[in-house]
C-alpha cells in the first residue's frame, strides 16, 4: 500500500512538470456517481414527454404561514415506489431587498432521534452551514410581504398554489404550486424564474443498501450509490450512500446567463447538452485548458441571467461538489419539456450537489447593477483593500535570496518602472516548512523588508495549508487535534503536497484558527516588526497530490463531524479567513491583504483571487478577460491572471501585450513558474521595456480611478471592470462581449490587444454617446464597431462622453510615494456639454475610514460651462486637513463642440482667481494649475 502510494505521488510530480492537464485524473460527469444519476433522471423524465408524475408534493396539512417573519413552512412529501413517504421540511422566506429564499432539509437526518442508522464517525444530519460562509450573516426578512392565508386553486389548471406578493410596489409575486412542488417568481406580472419547471427536483433520501431496490423509481439508476465507481476513488466509502440534491431552474425570456466560476470559458455561458455540465469543485487543475467546463480552483454558485427588461440571479448555497447543466433555446411547443408560459427564448438550467441541504435564493430586479447590490447585501461586499494592493505586484517562483529581492527592486528603480509589491514563493522557507525562513538565504529578511519599506514597498510571502510532518507546527496540529481527520475520524489525515508528507490545518475548527493566529503573531519565528508583510494562501482547494482528483478524499472528517464531501468548496474560504483574522491581529488597524487561489462565495470579504496556473500563450491572455468579467458578476471583483503566463516563456510581444491588458486587471501581478526564464519588464529590452513601463505607469496614473471603483464596490458591489451590458442592458448585441469593458464607472472603455501581430482592433461602441480617443482625444461616435489603431505601443482606450475622472500623473517608485501628489482631472463632455464623476480618498491603509469617517468624497460635475467640485469630508481629521496641500494641477476637457476658449474663473473658500488656460490643444481644452485644493468644494466658470 505504502509503495503504491509513493509511486502515485512520484508519477504525479513527474507529469506535473512534463505534460499538460491530465483529464483522466478527474471524474467526468458520467463517472461521478451523483452527476451520473441526476443527469440520468433528468433524461428519463424528459424522454417521458410530460407523462412523468413527480413524487414530490407539499403536504397541505403541514403548511404554516407567518406574516410576521414573511415565511411559509411545511413539508414536501416524497412518495417512494414501495408506498412509503419521506418527509422533507421546507421554508420559503421573503428577504429584505425582495429576494426569495428556499431551504429544504430531510427530516430523518435532521432529527437525531429518528435516525435509523448513523455512521458514528460523522455528523448524521445534512450539512446546513454553507450559508455561514456564503452569506455575511443571517439575511434580514422583508417587512412588506403579503402571504396568502390558504391555498388558491387555479381555475384553468385546477392546481393549488400559495401566493406571496412582495416588493415596495407589490411588483413581485411568488406562486408555490403544491403538487408537484414548484415555485414561479413573477416580476411586474411576467414569469421570470420557475423552480422545478421540468420536474427534475430530486432529494436522494437516506436509505440502506438493502432498502434501495424498493425505493428507487424506474427513472432512477443506482450507479455509484454505495460505491464510488471512479478508478481513482481511493476507497471513498460513501457512509450515507446517495444523498444528492437537485432542481431545475428555468429563466423565462432570458437568453444569456453568466457567472458560476471558476471556468476558463466564455463570459456568456454555453449550452451543455452535448458536453459535461459546468462543474463547481475546487481543484488544483495544473495546466488547465481554455474553453472548458472543467472545474478549477474556486467556486461561486451564483448565476446571473440577463434580458432587456430585467436581470435575475440564482444563488445556490451549497459547498459540496456541484454541477450546472444549461439548455438554451426558444420553446418548441411540441416538446413538453419546454417552457410554455412564454413565446420568448429562455434558458433552462439544472443544478445538483452531492450532499447538504437545498438552500437557494432567487433574485430579480431591473438591472445587473441592482442584482450585484442584492448579492452584496447577502454575501457581503468586497472589502476595501489597501491602496498599494492596486499597484503592480512582481512575483516569480522564486526570488532566491535577500540579495536577489533587493536587486530586482533596484532594477525597477533604475528603469523607472513603478511597483508596489515583491513576492516570495515556497522556496523562501526551510524545506517548505511554512513559518520558517531558509537559513543562509533569508536570514536578513527583516532588514530586507525594512529596505523595501523605505521606498513604500511591500512583501508578500506564501503560506499554504499543507503542513510538513515532523516539525513544530505539524506536531502541534497533530497533538492538539487541529488538523483535518482521516475517514475514521480518529487520527490526523496525512497526504502529500509540496513538502512531501503533510497534514492540513482544519480551519473550520475555532481552536485551529486560534492556533493559526499565534503563528502569525509578532513574537514567533515568523516575526518581524515591519508592517509591510502580507500573505499569499495557495493550494487551498485543498491541493493534495496523493488525493483523488488532486484534492482531499471526500470522506475525511472536519471539525464538528462534517464529512469533507459536504464542506469541500468552502475549505479555502475558511483558510484565508483564518489568515485574514491572524493578520488583522498582527498589524492592528491595517487592512490585511491576502491572495487566495481557492475561493467560495463570501471570499470577497477578505481576499483577492487570481486565476492560477495559466500558460504563456495568446489564448490564455484572451481567456483572462472573460474570466475577470465573470468575477465581477459574482461579487469577487479583486482578481487577475498571471501576467505573462505561469508556464512557459512568452515572446516579447506577448509579454508586452499582456502587460497592456494586465494593467486593467483589478489585481495586477506578473508571475512565472520556477522553470521559466526571468522576465521582469526591464529584461526584454527596447522597445518592449519602455512600452511595458508606460503601461505600468498608466495603471499608476489611474490608481484614483481604481481606488474610487473599489470604494464603490465596498458599498454597492459594483464591478471594477464593468461588462458592457451593465450600462446598456437593453442592447442585446453587447451581452456576449467579453474582450472589452468599462473601467468601474469612469467611462473609460478598453479593448486590450490579445491577437498576435495585431496593428489595429475593432472596438464595439454600445451606444450613441460621443467617445474620445484616450490619447488623441479624437471623436468616435456611433453604435457599432470601429477600427482603432493598435500598434505595439498603443493601448486602445476610449473615453465615453459624460464622465469626469481623476489621475495622478507624476512618476513615483510606488503608490505610497504618490500619496500627496496633485491630481489631473479629465472631463469628457456628452452631447449637452455635461459630465459627472467622483473621487474617493482616504489614508489608503487603515480602517479609520470606517471607524472615524476619515475620508474625503468628491463629486465633480460640469454643466453650462461651470465645472464644480462638491466635497463631502467624512470628518475633519489630521489626514483630511493634510489634503489641503493636495491640489488639482491640470484639467483636461474634451468634447464635441467646446464653446469656451480662454478664461477659467476659479472660486474656492470665498476666494477667486483666474487660472491659466491653454485653449484647445490636441483636441482638448486645458486648464493649467487651477491650484484648487482637493478637500474643499470649488467652482470654475469657463468662458
Ligand atoms: C501553485 C500556484 O498556482 C503557483 O502560482 C505557485 O507558484 C506554485 N503553486 C508554487 O507555490
TrEMBL record:
Residues 382-708 form the Glycoside hydrolase family 31 TIM barrel domain. The keyword Zinc does not apply. Keywords: Endoplasmic reticulum, Glycoprotein, Glycosidase, Hydrolase, Signal. GO terms for cellular component: glucosidase II complex. One of its GO terms (molecular function) is alpha-glucosidase activity. One of its GO terms (biological process) is carbohydrate metabolic process. Residues 718-804 form the Glycosyl hydrolase family 31 C-terminal domain. Residues 1-20 form the signal peptide. Residues 89-325 form the Glycoside hydrolase family 31 N-terminal domain. Pathway: Glycan metabolism; N-glycan metabolism. It is found in: Endoplasmic reticulum. Belongs to the glycosyl hydrolase 31 family. PANTHER family: ALPHA-GLUCOSIDASE, BCDNA.GH04962. This is Glucosidase II subunit alpha. It comes from Saccharomycopsis crataegensis.
